[in-house]
Amino acid sequence: MQFGIFTVGDVTTDPTNGTTPTEHERIKAMVRIALKAEEAGLDVFATGEHHNPPFVPSSPTTMLGHIAAQTSKLVLSTSTTLITTNDPVKIAEDFAMLQHLADGRVDLMMGRGNTGPVYPWFGQDIRQGIPLAIENYALLRRLWREDVVDWEGKFRTPLQGFTSTPRPLDGVPPFVWHGSIRSPEIAEQAAYYGDGFFANHIFWPTSHFQQLISFYRQRFEHYGHGSADQAIVGLGGQAFIRPKSQDAWNEFRPYFDNAPVYGHGPSLEEFTDQTPLTVGSPQEVIDKTLTFREHFGDYQRQLFLMDHAGLPLKTVLEQLDLLGEHVVPVLRKELDAMRPAHVPDAPTHESLKAAAQVEATV
Predict the structure, then answer these.
(1) pTM of the predicted structure, to 2 decimals
(2) CB burial of residue 13 (10 Å; 0-12, 13-18, 19+)
(3) Residue 282 has what DSSP assignment?
């Protein structure tokens, strides 16, 4: 079981004091958060990709390459790589390069994003979002798996005798998760290829994501990749932790009430009741996170969003200490003990490399 954090890289005013970090400060803070994640014993750091204010992570591989040079164990990922508006050739090259720099500690999450205006900025039509995701990813897979590619499609110029460089490390492409909050077509795509499916699981009720994940599991089995309970599932989540529950509620409330995404809507009490957001003590976070398995089955990756809504860096680093010291060790022990032997761990470069070597000898 992998545990980690994911960030959307928002630049948001702290509602308690009116201060707003600069882009430089926010970018540096994200790096510091990633380093703290490894120090705290977490497994994964994932960054989003955005090309519009108030977000700063427009070049995820640049940031992850910088973090790779300062870490040794942390799996570096994206919490969205825009498969619809990025050229698959560039994705293939960038993430293969990152693989080499990070010695294989790389995977990525494909998604369409949630910002409509980005499509025309990169010469695409939002009405073609699903076809773009399907065609671009099919090409990306070939670029990583075939040394010479001849290809023709609808959305980009043809390729003739093209070789993407560098080649994936050890001949093993990065593992891919497909992220979605609402599209069964993306769950189908993940199942078809035997890839992972990541349910954001933040803003919508559990019942919605239960349907998506159940569909993905059924289609994973349909395509012959294993039984439904062996499908590779990741979940998002949110938490704000303090040793005492009431302190957590009091401290987080102004951030929640003024958050750009969900502020001025449901109350904090209503939101924590209806979504995975947990505000409270370490034990309360443990208890609620353990219910995710009851809703979705055994899964492989749990990422928490902890640096949003204007929370200051000092507070986020304190959150990571609490998560790493008091929450994750218990969750890891409990969830690993409950997972049947036939349900796999999250794929890593080493496990994929070993599987490829076995397959080559058969």
Answers:
(1) 0.96
(2) middle
(3) H
- CA dihedral sign, ordered 320, 325, 330, 335: positive
Q: Is 11 exposed, middle or buried (0-12, 13-18, 19+ CB in 10 A)?
A: middle
**Contact call for residues 215 and 223 (beta carbons, < 8 A):** no
Positive/negative CA dihedral, 248, 249, 253, 256: positive
Main-chain phi, psi angles of 35, to 5 degrees: -65, -40
| Sign of the torsion formed by the C-alpha atoms of 79, 82, 84 and 89 | negative
Taking a C-beta distance cutoff of 8 angstroms, is the pair 8, 306 a contact? Answer: no
* Contact between 77 and 44 (Cβ < 8 Å): yes
Which residues are registered as beta bridge partners of 233? Answer: 197
Instruction: Check: CB of residue 272 under 8 Å from CB of residue 285.
Output: no
Can you tell me the distance from the alpha carbon of 295 to that of 263, in angstroms, rounded to the nearest whole number? 27
pLDDT in tens, 14-64: 999 999 999 999 999 999 999 999 999 999 999 999 998 999 999 999 999
221's tokens: 């089995």
Instruction: Give 10's strand partners.
Output: 55
Strand-pair partners of 199: 180, 235
**φ, ψ dihedrals at 238, nearest 5°:** -135, 145
228 alpha carbon, distance to own chain's centre:
21
Neighbours of 78 (CB within 10 A): 26
Q: Which amino acid is at 268?
A: L
Q: What is the pLDDT of residues 173-214, one digit of tens each?
A: 999 999 987 789 999 999 999 999 999 877 777 888 999 999
Please state, in angstroms and rounded to a whole number, the distance separating the CA atoms of residues 207 and 186. Answer: 18
Q: End-to-end alpha-carbon separation of the chain, Å? A: 29
Query: For residues 255-269, b (16+ Cβ closer than 10 Å) or e, as one string?
Result: bbebbeebeeeeebe
Task: Say whether 56 sits in a helix, a strand or coil.
Answer: coil
> Position of tokens 């600069």?
22
**What type of residue sits at position 77?**
S
